[in-house]
Design a protein that fits this description.
The structure is a single chain. This protein has eight helices and no strands. The chain is mainly alpha-helical and 176 residues long. The chain folds into two domains: 120 residues, no CATH class; 53 residues, no CATH class. Helix 1 runs antiparallel to helix 2, helix 2 runs parallel beside helix 4 and helix 6 crosses helix 8. The radius of gyration is 24 Å and the shape is elongated. The relative contact order is 0.09.
C-alpha cells in the first residue's frame, strides 16, 4: 500500500475507523429505539383491543366502577401513546363511544394524519429533547464535564463525544 510522506495516514485511517464505529453505534441505538417503540405501540393496541371485547358489558350497579376502569385504561394508554384523552374521560357518555373516539385518535396518530383539525399542539424542540432515550442523549450531548454539569471520570478515549461516560452519567441519580 502506498504511504504518503507528508500526511499522517495512520491518524486519518484511525479517524475513519472511529467514524465507522460511531455510525455503527448510532445505527444500533436507532434500531433499539425503533424496536421499543413498536413494542410499545403493539402493547397499547393489544390493550385497546381488549377494551372493545368488554364494550358490550351489561349495565349493572357496578357500571360506574367499570366506566372508571375504562377511563383509567384510556388515560394510561393515552399517556403511553402520547394521545390526548382528558376530554374523552371528562365527557364520557358511553364506553362504546369513548373507545371508538380513542381508537380513531390512535389511528390518526399511527397514520400521521396532518389534518389541521387533528393537530392538537405542535411539538417543540424541547419536547423532542425530552422524548429522547438515554442513548440518543448520549450521542448528541457533550461531555458533562465540558458543560459544567458534573465532575465525572472521563478518560476521553471515546472519540464519539464521550458516549460511555455520558450514558453512565445520564443513568446515575441526580446530584442536584
Amino acid at each position: 500500500m502506498y504511504k504518503a510522506e507528508n500526511i499522517d495516514t495512520d491518524k486519518a485511517l484511525q479517524a475513519i475507523d472511529q467514524a465507522r464505529i460511531c455510525q455503527k453505534r448510532e445505527s444500533n441505538v436507532r434500531v433499539v429505539k425503533e424496536r421499543a417503540y413498536i413494542e410499545g405501540i403493539n402493547k397499547g393496541l393489544d390493550i385497546a383491543e381488549s377494551l372493545f371485547e368488554c364494550s358490550n358489558y351489561e349495565k349493572t350497579a357496578q357500571e360506574a366502577t367499570y366506566t372508571d376502569g375504562v377511563c383509567e385504561t384510556l388515560y394510561e394508554l393515552g399517556k403511553e401513546l402520547d394521545v390526548p384523552t382528558q376530554d374523552i374521560r371528562d365527557n364520557i357518555s358511553s364506553v362504546d363511544e369513548a373507545c371508538a373516539l380513542f381508537a380513531d385518535r390512535i389511528r390518526k396518530k399511527l397514520t400521521g394524519s396532518t389534518d389541521k383539525k387533528d393537530v392538537e399542539k405542535p411539538q417543540t424542540n424541547a419536547d423532542r429533547i425530552r422524548s429522547m432515550t438515554d442513548e440518543e442523549l448520549a450521542i448528541h450531548m457533550m461531555c458533562p464535564n465540558d458543560m459544567g454539569l458534573a465532575e465525572i471520570e472521563c478518560d476521553k478515549s471515546d472519540s464519539c463525544n464521550c458516549y460511555e461516560c455520558l450514558l453512565k452519567w445520564l443513568r446515575a441519580e441526580s446530584e442536584g
